[in-house]
Structures
1.
Amino acid sequence: MEIKRLEETGYLFQQDGAKPHVHHLTQNLCLDHFPSFIDKNHWSPNSLDLNPLDYCIWDELAQSIDWNNVAPKETLIKELKRAVKQIRQDVVLQSCSSWSSRLHRALEAGGCFLKKLITRYV
């Protein structure tokens, strides 16, 4: 089963608010198979502040892309694959480890968007 293989990898599976993801059967499947599953009522699917891809990784990826080399679709795909390999592991780890503090700040802000962080991941 695909879920079993995902658990063995140690990766985190995250869903957004798409209808198939919030359907009660999907939610029940995740509750049954993912020990740390956060259900749809306790996750903010549209919060850019709480998704490491949105608040850090996409920026790192965009900076790694040679934008002069992405005119046709084929070269864009090739360049994206190259750029993903350039994302530093320390940036990914720091981005994910800051999630809890970002969650607390979002709660303190009443669920409103957080101001941009002054320090940048280097």
2.
Amino acid sequence: MPFPLSPQTIDTLAEIITGGSGMGSGPSPIGIYRSGPQIERFMRGCTVDFRVNGSRVSKAEISMAGPCR
């Protein structure tokens, strides 16, 4: 069942699930860094078909945006 989430909420959820970029000197991540395969397993556990083929964070945001509209 879809439920509406704001773009800011989706961005924050993606940061929590992926652990952010994992690189750089920016703010500390708010989640635990997960590799692409770890994120795929996590999302499968949530019954979301998810494949990483590029940026893990961007892909997570796009995947979450679909069912949340």
